[in-house]
Amino acid sequence: MSRERILAAARAALGRSGNPDAGAIRAEAARLVAGADRGRPPRSGTLTERFIERLTDPKVGGTVEQVASLSGLPGAVRAYLFTHNLPASIALPPDPALTALDWAGIATHHRIATDEPVAVGLAACGIAESGSLVFHSAPTAPTLHNFLPLHHIVALDTAKLLEWLEDYATGPACGGRAQPRNVNIVTGASGTTDIEGRLVRGAHGPGFLHVVLFAGG
Amino acid sequence: MRANQPNFAARVDAALASPTLKTAIDRTTGTAERNRARAVAAWPDFQAARDLGRDIRAHVVNNIDHYLVEFERNALATGAKVHWASTSEDACRIVVEICRAAEAKSVTRSKSMLGEEIGLPHALEAAGITRVETDLAEHIIQLAGDPPSHIVWPALHKTREQVKELFAASHRDPGAMEDVESMVQAARRELRAKFMAADVGISGANFLVADTGAVCTVTNEGNAELTTTPPRVHIVTAGIEKLVPSTTHAMALLRLLVRSATGAELTQYTTFHTGPKQPGDLDGPDEFHIVLVDNGRTNMLADGLAEMLRCIRCGACLNHCVVYRNIGGHAYGGTYPGPMGSVLTPALDGLPAARDLAHACTLNGSCQEVCPVRIPLPTLLRGWRDRSWREGLEPSSVRTALGLWKFVATRPWLYRLATAAAVRGMRLFAKRGWIEAMPLAGGWTRHRGLPAPSGGTFMQQYQAQKRKAR
Amino acid sequence: MTRVALFVTCLVDAMRPQIGFAAISLLEQAGCTVAVPDAQTCCSQPALNAGDADGARTIARQVIAAFEGFDFVVAPSGSCAATIKVHFPEMFEADAKWHARATALAAKTFELLSFLTDVCRWLPHDARLPGSFTYHDSCSGLRELGVMAQPRKLLAQVGGLELRPLDGNTVCCGFGGTFCVKYPAISNAIVEEKARAITATGADLLLGGDLGCLMNMAGKLHRTGSPVRTFHAAEVLAGMADGPAIGESV
To answer: Which residue has the higher pLDDT, B3 or B375?
Structure first.
């Protein structure tokens, strides 16, 4: 069996006689990342400022606006559709927090099309360090909504902004029963540099990422 | 997994003869080099981060048996199926069997160097399964029938004009393609329906997270998620060294990986895939398979190449290598080019076929200087040179010349006589200070002038001065 | 007085003795007594880089025996100095006795220009050479020994001499010891680009600290008809750059 062959070969190469000491290995692994700031980039400004600065960096390519509360999302979406000359029709995941909003003037549908022009979503949280949005797959949050549309408009509660990537990693959604099938950490619009090293947006995923920040609490 | 034909010298000549290759390489790797430098300059503690990266990866390699078992246990708990493959043949057979069991006609694939290493594209074709490469670069080289020439930008050897021709000849709706933007749009249109129609999606793994059983992929295009979400079956092929203890460790490595590769803080899409579709989920695969591939890695661990197993495939060593920058990826003849490839290929394809790779390096140390996990690449290349010497693979002309040199160099009196004679001899070929051609010096004089020795040797002149002074 | 043994290097010995005499002159100006041990030949790199580890060790033992009796060992080459300083201890990892001797020698071995600034704390005071120069940082000295600021600090003291920065100054020139003759086509592609960058600086002189790299670049500059003349930095610092440059006839 390959499994036994591989493990035996690894153990022989490592010069192990018995089973590895799992407790000691775990302790060593934890020690490596224990130093609070070991190997982290510098930071400045408030959490929200940092998030916005990263998200709107040309390398990341996101745009952002702030509204007072989630109920301001439909208005922001309407304005976005108007500005970008887009049809008043959006794919909306079946998330009660989104479907409960007043979408007057915009047709919404749950089933996303292969060539969906616009989808609106709600991020599980954000990461200031990298300007990232985090999405968890769930019955109310299909993964493809984050990848198929050309324009992706995402609402993010500023209370759910985290400082570092590690803050997400040690949170409740990593490991255990709460781990969703897919955790998508989305950092800006889709891009490619595969032809002559030139950055082009919208390779496969959304070509435009617009974040609507709201103060939840 | 490519035949080492024709030989290295011929491949190098072909690469250097290309009128476009050097420009194409410089465009992409030059941009990557500049962007990386900017990202590193903006992070004063980058060197400490590299130490952390090295330590995490070394810890995993030193405990790989433990982490394999932990990962398997946690992945099984999420509903994943875990397969083990000692060899590339085993791995391909497992993947093809899963595809056959799923009655797959069409398979989408998200770029994975491990897949290239084990020859998966060929195995799928041999099994009569339609393979759709979804990474833009992989799509380009699939159309061209080329192997990848870089581990991050597999199609960097193609110019925009060549890409346009390929798309025009094969896309259903290529459009005018007046610029790079419209070429990217053409590929988006072409691949969209294929993503949704595939029966199986195959991805690699950037990290396997031991304590959650998750598989982490990173892309800038979003093709990994479009490859792995719509089909009924998602297969991951991953080298056994891809493990990390936890998501926290993965995050620390992601910072280094992306900055080293492209100079960005994070790729646009970083996804942790954990098991199959969960109850109530509206999308995601019904089956989630992970194939853990050894293919020589445990041998590397036993043979003094443990440090190479730290590699996180960022490509920085390629971008900063003067040899790679001039000959490109195909000249190396293996799956992995550049410095990391020159260390890996002898381990994967055997030293006799890859002997040249260890030598075709100036040992300038740039690769080691940029490696995010501090792999001592020049030292490992020297290790292959030592082994090649010990195993008698070096040409007899080299052994004879070196033997003669050693005989002289270990006898200082003889060395004095020999160098004085050589200097006199060389000066016979000099014209106005330069030797433009001389027997045995063709390797030098074909391309550059050889400055003639300026007079007697230092030792002769020094002794003469000392005698005069007395 | 500090007793310094000069490791001449095989290339300086055969190809350009003046660099050796410049090194002696600079070391003496810096207050050292200089000896040139008779038993020296080569640092072992040809064997070491070919993979002949036993052969390299044989030569290394000869170097250690010939040089370990001095306070310092100085070479006008980052590459040869790095072989002694970095690689000798590695070569004897399995041999405790020789490892100790190699480590002791490594601790007192230096590349010439960094030795002058870092150990002797010496700077030239009356050197003068009107004109401009550009500088190539040879890889072994740069990455294995950290030689980069030192030659610039020394050359900044030379009256009338102005630095023209070189694009890609830390990029390998394609010499690589036997690499340049084993893989001449690749080496040529690399040095071609280097020569273009050197000529583009518009400098009168190309300076560096390693004769192998300098010969490689000078040879390409010569073939491409570039007006840039090449010297070892030590020659300029010792006031010996008034004669023929590398490759110019007397």
So the answer is: B375
Both A86 and A167 in a single domain?
yes
The predicted complex's ipTM stands at: 0.97
Contact A130 B192 (CB under 8 A): no
- The CA distance from C151 to C129, in Å, is 15
Min Cα–Cα distance to chain C from B428, Å: 13
Q: Is the pLDDT assigned to residue B117 strictly greater than 70?
A: yes
Under an 8 A CB cutoff, do B281 and A142 touch? yes
CB-CB under 8 Å, C185 with B362 = no
Which residues of chain A lie closer than 8 angstroms to B227, CB-CB?
A: none
Residue A164 covered by a domain: yes
Q: What string of DSSP letters covers B92-127?
A: HHHHHHHHHHTT-SEEEE---HHHHHTTHHHHHHHT
Q: What is C124-237's CATH number, 1.10.3210.10, 3.40.50.11810, 1.10.10.10, 3.30.420.40?
A: 3.40.50.11810
The model's pTM is 0.96
Q: Which chains touch B (3 or more CB pairs under 8 A)?
A: A, C
Q: How far is C110 from C108, CA to CA, in rounded Å?
A: 7
Q: Could you list the residue range(s) of the whole structural domain that residue A15 is in?
A: 1-32
Is residue A38 included in any domain, yes or no?
Answer: no
C181 CB neighbours in chain B (<8 A) are 441, 443-444
Residue whose entry in the numeric block shows the structure tokens 């719509």: B230
How many domains is chain A partitioned into structurally? 2
pLDDT band at B1 (very low <50, low <70, confident <90, very high): very low
Sign of the alpha-carbon dihedral angle for B300, B306, B312, B317? negative
- At B469, the pLDDT band (50, 70, 90 cuts) reads confident
Q: Do A71 and A10 share a structural domain?
A: no
